[in-house]
Amino acid sequence: MRKQNLKDYKLPKNWTRGKSFFHEMIWQVFFKPIISSSLPGTIWRKLILILFGAKIGKSVRLSPGIKIKMPWRLYIGDYSWIGEDVWIDNLSIVKIGNNVCISQGTYFCTGNHDYKKVSFNLICESIIIESESWIGSKVIIGPGNKIGKGSVIKMGSIIKKDVPPQSIFTENKTKINYFIK
What we know:
The protein is α/β, with parallel strands linked by helices. It has one domain: UDP N-Acetylglucosamine Acyltransferase, domain 1 (3 Solenoid), CATH 2.160.10.10. The chain is built from two helices and 19 strands. Strand 10 and strand 11 form a beta hairpin. The chain is globular and about 50 Å long.
């Protein structure tokens, strides 16, 4: 029978929050709510995220309602779009390439817990979305996954493994080399 004992919970040995308590407090209390607001506009969102350590390319579109846990662990390439209500729960690095469309309601989960251990240890792994990919709305991308260049992830998919380049991922199945060049 599986047991869970949260008093013995442990963070990964090499994991840190990445910034000082003060830096993170300013982000969480004052600027994260502003970024997540329904106010229109990309330029001011981009400037605030860069101020807090995000690396964001040129002509990136950032829609209202986005949630970003740790901007200092976020990289977005040129000409990419982040749709409304996207949640980047980045306890680890999230890299989004050039010309990537992340549709509304997508959830990036870089952290999970080891259910096999009683102590419920935290596991953090990066997520990489390579250039020219399209992530459909309401997609969930789990820790440690990579979406290959030019791939399409159809609406509502759950990504639990890497998706090869030039693939279409639908209904939790991958169609490899769907695109012909």
